[in-house]
Specification:
With 224 residues, the protein is an alpha/beta fold. It is built from 9 helices and 10 strands. Bound molecules: adenosine-5'-triphosphate and magnesium ion. Adenosine-5'-triphosphate binds next to helix 1.
Length: 224
Amino acid sequence: MENLIEVKNLYHRYEDGQKMRAVLKDINITFETGKLYAVVGSSGSGKTTLLSLLSGLDSVQDGDITYLDESINDIGYTKYRKEFVNVIFQSYNLINYMTAIQNVITAVDIKKVKVHNKKEKAYEILESLGIDKETADREVLKISGGEQQRVAIARALVHDSKVILADEPTGNLDDDTEDEIIDIFKDLASKGKCVIIVTHSQNVAKHADIIYEIKKGKIEIKKD
Ligand SMILES: Nc1ncnc2c1ncn2[C@@H]1O[C@H](COP(=O)(O)OP(=O)(O)OP(=O)(O)O)[C@@H](O)[C@H]1O
Ligand SMILES: [Mg+2]
């Protein structure tokens, strides 16, 4: 286990009419490798805001976020997003006119990173997530929601990074499929990834090693 990401004295403010409103107030938390984290909190509490900052999609206004002791600001946001983190969006963001396998391969191409034997690797990862070759070769509109969710996860795995961030990854799934997806995330954490999931689901949260709850802009640790 190592301290991978450290959030230090982080504030985040949004413009609200004439004034600025702080959504995150002096957040100090650490994320380690090999652990599954759940970020919970009521709607509008700032979960997606925190995830956007952790994934380098939004820039830090005040305070700092470091990756292996180096500020994301110094690493550079583009490099950080490309090389160090993989994000799974709630809406999957799959490209509908492509097949599952094309979606996974395109994700590698967009990142412009080198992945050895990317096509075989993509099939392999999909297979490990329960998507066989026949399904992988179908357009994503012709596979189920749970399968689409797995494709979105596969896309985040084909390029190896230590951090996986997911916003409501089981939001649209039934309980059984949710359990299967949780197992995938737990397995990734046990293999040394740092997995951070924003969720409303009690079921997902209870499987996490650590639960961070955002309340009135502050973070409380609910389970340690
Ligand atoms: N770009 C923005 N400009 C202004 N206010 C914003 C912006 N993005 C989010 N907010 C506000 O900041 C607060 C936190 O939003 P955020 O999306 O982080 O909440 P959340 O915890 O993810 O909620 P949910 O569970 O509904 O997804 C909300 O009050 C929201 O309206
Ligand atoms: Mg949100």
